[in-house]
Structures are given as C-alpha cells and as structure tokens.
Specification:
Elements: E1 26-30, E2 42-46, H1 62-82, H2 88-92, H3 105-126, H4 131-152, H5 156-177, H6 182-208
Antiparallel strand pairs: 1-2
Helix pairs in contact: 1-3, 3-4, 3-6, 4-5, 5-6
C-alpha cells in the first residue's frame, strides 16, 4: 500500500499534495476526516491547467441569450410568413370543413415562435451538446421550410413530407425532454398539437386536390 500511495501522508485525514507529475485527469488518493473509504483512501480527481467542464455563462448574459433566440426565431418566422402569404392559388384549393380562417395563423404562429425561441435558449444554455439541442435545430429547419414549399412553390406533397418530418422531430424532442427539462416539455405540447392539426390539414388538402 505504501508503494501505491506514494506521496500520501500517513496521517489520517490529511490530503495528498498535487504531484508535479500529475497531468490532466490524474487520479490521486487521499482520505478525508470522518469519511468511509476503501482501505482508508478515496480517489480525488486532479485537473491541471484548463477547465474541462462546459463553458460557464454568466447569469447576466442569460437574459440576453433568451432575448436573442426569441427575436431571431420570431423575426425569421415573420419574414418567411410575409414572403409566403396565402394568395389566390390557396383560395382556389378545395379545403376540409375544419379549415380555420386565414387570420388565425398569424397570431398562433407568432405565439408559438416566442415559445420555440424560449425553449431554444433553454436548450442552448443547459443542454447545448445533447440530442435535445440537435432536435430543436432539426424541427426549426423543417418549420421554416414548410411555408416556402407550400405557399411559395405550391408543392403540397413536398410540404406534407416536411411537416410530417417536423411532427416526428417534435415527438422525439418531447421524448428526450420529458425526463430532462420538464418546462420545455410542457411548453412544446401546444406546439405539437398545432403541428399535428396542420399536418392533418395539409394531408386533407393534398387528398382533395
């Protein structure tokens, strides 16, 4: 034991000094007072030089991150919507009886974009390198791609494929966030419900035209 714990002070409760040869990730042994350990020793992680944990974001910058995400998401959503307004082509399509009036889409999507931006900021701040962040980016791509395909290019079938991909990505996002970020999970439930409704509407228009 003396050979394997070189540099460890024999006095119980004394911590070992950091070895000059200890590099990043080196494990040293020491025993703290009143601690139950194996053979009177427990491992201590010694880190040299740089911090290996995820980057620390000061508390003062977090509101800025939330604001930037919300502004970017809402701004991009409104810009895409302005450039892909339902026109005469859409009015001429046969639609199901549950098709809502056109004026309702703007307020609903604006509110949803605020929620999406807020959840995106939470994902960036707390789960940046996780599947949660990647799924958020994926659903955002599908979301922004739908209007140009449906209203701009008038490709109902391709738009249907994209919105179904959006629906799947949202379901996966909710599955990932359920045990990791309950607030994001709850906030995305109305978003999932609206996209499910929009998918049914897209499918109905596709079948009727």
């Amino acid at each position: 034991m003396g050979a394997t714990a070189r540099g460890w002070k024999g006095r119980k409760g004394a911590a070992s000094p950091v070895s000059p040869l200890a590099g990043e990730g080196t494990t040293e042994l020491f025993a703290g007072p009143g601690q139950k350990t194996i053979f009177g020793l427990r491992k201590r992680r010694v880190l040299s030089g740089r911090n290996t944990t995820r980057p620390y974001i000061p508390a003062m910058s977090k509101p800025l991150v939330y604001a930037l995400f919300i502004i970017l998401v809402v701004g991009c959503g409104l810009l895409i919507g302005i450039n892909n307004i339902p026109g005469e082509w859409y009015q001429s399509l046969a639609k199901p009886a549950f098709n809502p009036p056109n004026w309702i889409f703007g307020p609903v999507w604006t509110l949803l974009y605020v929620i999406i931006g807020f959840v995106g900021a939470r994902s960036f701040l707390h789960h940046r390198h996780s599947p949660m962040m990647r799924l958020w980016v994926a659903q955002m791509i599908f979301n922004f791609a739908w209007s140009p395909l449906f209203f701009g290019l008038q490709e109902i079938a391709l738009a249907l494929i994209v919105i179904l991909a959006l629906l799947v990505s949202l379901a996966l996002f909710l599955a990932v966030t359920y045990g990791r970020d309950r607030l994001s999970f709850l906030l995305f439930l109305p978003y999932l419900a609206w996209v499910a409704f929009a998918s049914l509407l897209n499918l109905s228009i596709f079948l009727m035209n």
